[in-house]
Amino acid sequence: MVALTQLVLPILLSAFLVFVCSSLIHMVIKWHNKDYGKLSNEDAVRAAINAGSPTPGQYIIPHCMDSADFKNPDAQKKFIDGPVAVLYLKKPGLPGMGPQLGGWFVFNIVVSIFAGYVASATLPVGTDYSKVFQVVGTTGFIAYALGEIPPAIWMGKPWTVAIKESADGLLYGLVMGGTFGWLWPK
């Protein structure tokens, strides 16, 4: 068995390399740039949302508190007429990437810690590269990719976006698996 403390270097390095990989995907390749559409009446929608003075949070349109509300003919009509949406509102202000990038890096460390934990609990010292790659890469894929599917099932996230984000997760898992395989204790 490998102690998790023996995996500090692969944990930190894999988190950093996933961060770099993600940055390349979003800032150089830019294959997610078209994942978000623009409403043709964006200003009117913004004005309508602002008129309600909502606080930052998650909203659903039309709103039904529980399944009994779906029996109401007025609620049914709202769903039929549309729009049906999930809306996330952030605090107003100029976007600053610092807190989001910091949060993303911390998330990468947490994923690497859990992947390292799974590997340390299942693989002994001296395990060959391919087995470490398999275990850590699969764990990384699960952590980064599979969570993209439920929003497509339940919330209307376009499947093309969920699949692209899952492909990112596959790449991140491969980076993690490779890093841990390379630095696995001998």
Shape: elongated
Class based on secondary structure composition and strand pairing: mainly alpha
Strands ordered across the widest β-sheet: 1-2
- Strand element count: 2
* Low-confidence spans: none
Fraction in helix: 55-70%
**Count of helical stretches:** 7
DSSP strand (E) fraction? 5-15%
Describe the main β-sheet briefly.
Answer: 2 strands, antiparallel
Q: What is the chains' assembly state?
A: single chain
Order of helices and strands: HHEHEHHHH
Rg, Cα atoms, Å: 21 Å
Query: If you average the pLDDT, what whole number results?
Result: 96
N-to-C CA distance: 12 Å
Structure in words:
Helices cover 62% and strands 5% of the residues. With 186 residues, it is mainly α. A two-stranded antiparallel sheet has the order 1-2. Helix 1 packs across helix 4. It is elongated and about 65 Å long. It starts with 7 loop residues before the first helix and ends with a helix.
